[in-house]
Amino acid sequence: MRIARVFPRKTAATPNDELVFFEQPPMLTLPEIDEVHVSVAFTYDIKRAEALAEMWRQVGVPVKIGGPAYNEPGGDFVPGRYLKKGYVITSRGCPNRCWFCSVPQREGYELRELPITEGYNVLDDNLLACSDQHIKDVFRMLKSQRERPMFTGGLEAKILKRWHVDLLKEVKTKRMYFAYDTPDDYEPLVNAGKMLREGGFTTQSHVLRCYVLIGYRGDTFSKAEKRLEDTIKAGFVPYGMLYRDANGVVDIQWKRFQREWARPAIIFSKIKQR
Hints:
The chain is α/β, with parallel strands linked by helices. Helices cover 29% and strands 16% of the residues. The protein has helices at 46-56, 103-107, 132-143, 162-170, 186-198, 221-233, 252-259, 264-272; strands spanning 3-6, 20-21, 35-39, 63-66, 87-88, 91-92, 112-113, 121-122, 150-151, 175-180, 208-214, 237-242.
């Protein structure tokens, strides 16, 4: 089946084949298709996505709209369909109950281990919470890839084990991300950094990275900056992740602050100055 995938927003993870679109259907040059899927990742894109779905219904083929924004649980991962080739999801769900995260609402509190497909950029919700066998099978797959693996979906510092570090080193991980979302996350992050350095990773390589949640209710610029700087002290490259509510509304001052902690060149400069 030839499925046209329509996205209201282009990101680094969006597929780029001939059946991917971001606007109304190009009636004169539209390839032959059997179905249209409008995929929505963010709740604040729903309005535009629904407008796009209405436009694509003019093509005369079935149009479906869905995605994470609708809190729909994902099924088995199909490489290249809704994410660019190279991206891979091997499990869904997370046992944690973080107040800011929609994953448990969408996928449930129990992990579902999926059939493992080829890819090098792992986007699992919480890979390290999977069974030991599943984790080992994922790394076996990663070892066979031509590209060095990245874990942009994030790894949970609190449950990182030494044998995980050995596997991360064995596959020559290019980049791995952890998270510093609440004050309780800092001590596990420090411990993870120590374990990773003992396992052969260096701070200077910039392989160790960390998403730092900022801009939520009660947060301040000074508190956020301290968390970001503490992340550097723990041995990680910090990336400010700006909290958004369901409507995607953010304060312009927080947006400006976040830009200073989201651009690699600026962040690396801050690290060098330390």
